[in-house]
């Protein structure tokens, strides 16, 4: 990927991370999943695991987008 492509990609990721609706959706999803997790009892192992995995995947998606932004900014500084 060229530095210019990385900058474009970083800008697009930054726009997503700063988008009010995107953030609202992530916040609502995380809250719903956390509530679901809290409503399960210890014996509901599979449901608890699936909820935990989904929460982790949401966090990983946000982290991935943040890394794209960082990579683009580093690329911009090295040009």
Tell me what the structure shows.
By secondary structure, the chain is mostly helical. It has one domain. The chain is built from 3 helices and no strands. The protein is elongated. The two termini are 14 Å apart.
Tags for this model:
single chain, 79 residues, mainly alpha
Largest sheet: none
Number of helical stretches of at least 4 residues: 3
Using the CA coordinates, give the radius of gyration. 17 Å
Provide the β-strand percentage band. Answer: under 5%
**Helix/strand class:** mainly alpha
Distance between the termini: 14 Å
Q: Note the overall shape.
A: elongated
Q: Tally the structural domains.
A: 1
Q: Unreliable segments (pLDDT under 50, ≥5 consecutive)?
A: none
Helix percent band:
over 70%
Number of strands: 0
The H-and-E topology, N to C, reads as HHH
* Average pLDDT number: 90
